[in-house]
Specification:
Aspartate Aminotransferase, domain 2; Aspartate Aminotransferase, domain 1; seven-stranded mixed β-sheet; 443 residues; 2 domains; 16 strands
Length: 443
Amino acid sequence: MAIKSILSMNAFDQANFDSLPEDVKPETKRRLDVFGSASVLFFQEPIEVVKGEGCYLIDAKGTKYLDCYNNVACIGHGHPRVAEYVGKQLAIVNTHTRYLNKVVDDYAEKLLATFPKPLDKIAMTCTGSESNDLALRSAFYYTGGKGVIVTSGAYHGNSYLTTFVSPSSTNGKITCDFVKTVPAPDTYRIPKDQLADKFASDVEKAIEDLEASGIKFAALLIDDIFSSDGVFSDPEGFIKKAVDVVHKHGGVYIADEVQPGFGRTGKMWGFQRHGVIPDIVTMGKPMGNGYPMSAMVTRNEIIDALKQTGYFNTFGGTPGACAAGTAVLEVLKEDNLIENAKEVGDYLRDGLRALKKDHPCIGDVRGTGLFTGLELVKDPETKEIDPKGATLLINRLRYNNVLIGAAGPYGNILKIRPPLRFYKKDADFFIEAIKKSLTEIHL
C-alpha cells in the first residue's frame, strides 16, 4: 500500500469538480483559478468558512461545525481578548525587534518562565517551519555536524530545509543523504514495555549509519506526541533512553512543540510528560491563536552558536505578535484550559473506546490531553489498516457537523485535536457524531 503525502489526506480531488453541488462550484473555481492546481482544500465537498466561535466554525450557509481538527486557535476561534490586545497594539506601533519594546520583552519573559532551566533564551519567528529551520541551523553550528534523525512519518515544516526532514510531505521518501528516519513508536503494535528500548536502539542505529557514511550526527528532531506518525504518546517517559543516546553521541534533542505545546497534552509542554529537558524547543501555530507567530527556545551556548551568521526576522516577535501571545498565556491560566485538556481528553477517549463493542473497525483509541488518535482497521485481530474507511468517516462526519483530519502514513487514523475550549458537552456531541457516522457508512 502506497504511503500518502500529508497534503493528500482528506483533500478535495480536483478531478471531481464537475460533481460538486452547483452552489459550491463558483467559489471553488475561483480559488483554483487563483491558487492553481497545487493548492489544497479539505473534504470531498469544500466548505466556505466565514466565522469562528470557540470550538465551532460557521460556513457561508450558516451551518455550524464542531472543529475537532484546528489546534491553531488553541484558546478558541475569534477569542475577544486576542482581538482586543492585537487591535490595540496595531493602533500604537508594530515594528521589528531591533528596537526596545516592553510588550515584546514582557512576553518573552513570561513565555520563558514556563520552561525549565537552562532553557532561557528565545528567538522569535513567524511560523513553525521557520522555527524548525532555525533550530536545525543552530544544531548544525553548535555540534559541527549535519546529520538529522526524524521519524518515518514526521512533518516538521514546508521550508526548503524542513521539507527534507518531513517524510510525510514526500510520500515517505527521504531525498537527501544527511537525514535518516526511524520507525514511529507504534504503541498499538509494539508492546509498551519494549517501546523505550526499541526506539533508543533505532535511534542509535540511525546515528551509526550516518557516521558510517561520513556524516557527523547533529540532532534528533521529534514531535513528542508523534502526531503525523499516528499520535503515539504513551507510556510517559519512553523517549528518555533515546535522548540519552543522542547526548552520548554529541547530538542535540530538538522538541518540536508546534502541535503538542501550549497545554494540549495536559501539560504546558509535551516533553514534560517524558521527564526530559530538550536542548532546543520549537513552537508555532497555537502561540498566537491564529496570529502568525512562533519561536525557538534554547540555552545560552546554543544561541551563541548563531553568532556565526546572526539572526533577524522582520516580523518575528513584533509587538502585535507578542500582544497576541500574551493574551494566549493569560487565557490558558485564567480559564484552566490545561487542566481542562487533561480531564476532557480522558473523558473523550473513554467515550470513544466504549464504541468499540458495536464498531470493531475502531482498532485503537490513544492519546493524551486534547490530542487523540482513533485508528480504523479492517480486522481488530490482524490490525489490518483501513484508509478507505477513514476517508469515508471523515467526510460523513462533515455532513454530521464535525470537522476532522487524518494522520499516519496511510491516513487511516483520525487526528482529533480541537481548540482547548472543548468541554464535556462538545465531547458528547463528537462521540454521538462518530457513532451516527459509523452506522451510516456501515462500519
